[in-house]
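Dear Dr. H.,

I hope your travels went smoothly. While you were away I took the liberty of generating a structure for the chain from your last submission, since the lab meeting agenda had it listed for discussion. I wanted you to have the full record in hand beforehand rather than looking at slides cold. The sequence, exactly as received, is reproduced here:
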Amino acid sequence: MGRRAKYLNPAERQTAERARKARYASSIRGRLKRQNQNSKAYYKKRGRHTSKSSLSDQLKLSSVPNLPLSLISLAAMPLPTSNLFHEASCSADALDESDLWIWEQEPPYKYPETTMTAHEVQYTKNMADVMLGRRWRLSKAVRDERALRFVEGKAQELLAGILRGLAGRIHRWTTAASHVGGMGGGRNREMADCWLCWQARDIVSDSEEANILIGGGNPYCT
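The corresponding predicted structure, in token form, is as follows:
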């Protein structure tokens, strides 16, 4: 049997296409794309150099801080592919995350260690996967909130806030990394490495966002 036609005539096809475009235009993605197009048109008309200089003058900030190579390398490591990571990255209700707060504190850690049997090794790996999934989810929520603020015309405010915190976060990461390097093995070390990893990813992401904002672009239209 042949497949039934989706539209009976050209008028129905045009009506459906208009409805689809209207839905897209009202979506967050559509709004961001339109905002990005408008921004590009503005900079092309007014002059990109003038806009960038004005932004830098208003913020009185020169550039994004340099990132340590060790931080960049750690941020580039692939994320887990386990079901635990996927579930934690999708919803806060999927798994019990009540015990993870102690591992969100800055390392080094000095919690009592247990003998790292095969079971304990797997348990620690599972916990790290859940933590990375949780932090990926929280970072995405922050990025989505920033995207809406960008649409509202608050790019300069966003950039100022990102740059204001970057230098301190990089210093904290570097200090923590120096302490973690002297730790032994065990769960404390594994979770300290996990902390360094998700912090590095967040710092690199914020640095990339800031660079795009400084250049007059829209880092949230992907």
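Two observations you may find useful: Residues 55 and 156 are 7 Å apart (CA to CA). The chain has eight helices and no strands.

With kind regards,
E. W.
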